[in-house]
Amino acid sequence: MTDTTANGAAGSQPDSGPMLAADGTPLKVSLARALRRQKLRALMLIAPLLLFIVITFLAPIGDMLFRSVENNIVPETLPRTVVALEQWDPESGEAPGEAVFEALQADLLIAAEKKIHTRLGSRLNYETPGISSLFRKSGRRVDDMEQGPYKPQFLKIDEDWGDVEIWRTIKRYSGAYTAGYFLASVDMEYGADGPQLKPEDERIYLTLLWRTILLSTVITVSCILLGYPVAFLLANLPLRTSNVLMILVLLPFWTSLLVRTSSWIVLLQQQGVINDTLVTLGLVGDGGRLELMHNEVGTIVAMTHILLPFMILPLYSVMKTISPSYVRAAKSLGANDWTAFWRIYFPNTVPGIGAGAVLVFILAIGYYITPELVGGTSGIFISNRIAYHISSSLNWGLAAALGVVLLALILVFYWLYDRIVGVDNVKFGG
Predict the structure, then answer these.
(1) Which of 260, 270, 271 lies closest to 295 in space, CA to CA?
(2) pLDDT tens for residues 215-245?
(3) pTM value > 0.70
(4) Where are the domains of the chain?
(5) What is the pLDDT of residues 19-46, one digit of tens each?
(6) What burial letters (b/e) apply to 58-83, b meaning 16+ CB within 10 Å?
(7) Cβ(289)–Cβ(279) under 8 Å?
(8) Which fold would CATH assign to domain 205-425?
(9) What is the per-residue DSSP string for 288-313?
(10) Which of 90, 139, 240, 398 allows an S-S link to 112, with CB 3.0 to 4.6 Å?
């Protein structure tokens, strides 16, 4: 009895110490090490892709964000002038005193030797037209200036140095960062009382933004209306036939975008194939040929054709996963063809519509080659203006600000879509 009790008591005692792995280390520590090694191997596998994304996607976006607010050229080119201007009151209605002009002479002398004064003039000329020529003229003559006072000598070079607005612009953009590019991207400027809208005849970017949104929406809806029947047909035909027709859908991807757009120019121009056909059929007179190009119509028609496959493919992939038994069951319960389609089939295709609409809208809102060639002055997008500032006017700050506005616009629409439809409901296939 005593031995049994003792053995039972001994058996009920808890084990002393942690559980050990085969190598003698605590099991918890061994599992943690194995998990860390597994995560490290997974990280090494995705490291090349992660590095590629950082270099080709995140870094350019970060650089664009920085360029949209960067303004180092003014304080770096005119450091003494910027400091001297801190004592000047822009609301005084008078040009700065001799101390500022003395600092300007010292800064401009160095800038002219380095040949960077023209870059400064070009930057400030975006804000106040005429400053560029002012800096070029003064840079050529600053080396010939005599010992001070310098204010009369600058006024002799160009009386615009006595213009208060010139000095307000220099002081306003004397910081390392500025909101001026973003103001310009929404047709605003700095006024006497702060930011204000530009005169109505100078507003272009808000109009372009609205046109970009409107035409992209129309193109997306057009792709849905045209792509849905095609996808439905492909999904319900025999496999061999649908595969042949799918080649026709994919065929445009094998042709250059520039070639496809140029083909629409041939078709849509007033002396083109479509107008010639309408005249031949007697539907329009030779003097009343339709204007189908260099306007919104040309942009919508050409871009709908180009982006249509991006709507058909998601719709087709979703429709292929819908069992025909759903519609048959609805009909067996008394539903007619329309009711079975609208109440049973169509709701199952909504995820495909959502995926195609998001894809087409995001692609459309950033297009610029097609609108540039067939859109004319009334059919271009905001992206065409971004391309202009990057390649022609070289106003990279404004181009970056417009790009940020466009990116923010896409994110807002994506957020609204998520709230209304739900991103989880978007499907590209089964």
Answers:
(1) 270
(2) 999 999 999 999 999 999 999 988 888 888 9
(3) yes
(4) 24-58, 74-175, 205-425
(5) 766 666 777 777 888 888 888 888 888 8
(6) eeeeeebeebbbbbebbeebbebbbe
(7) yes
(8) MetI-like fold (1.10.3720)
(9) G----SSSHHHHHHHHHHHHHHHHHH
(10) 139
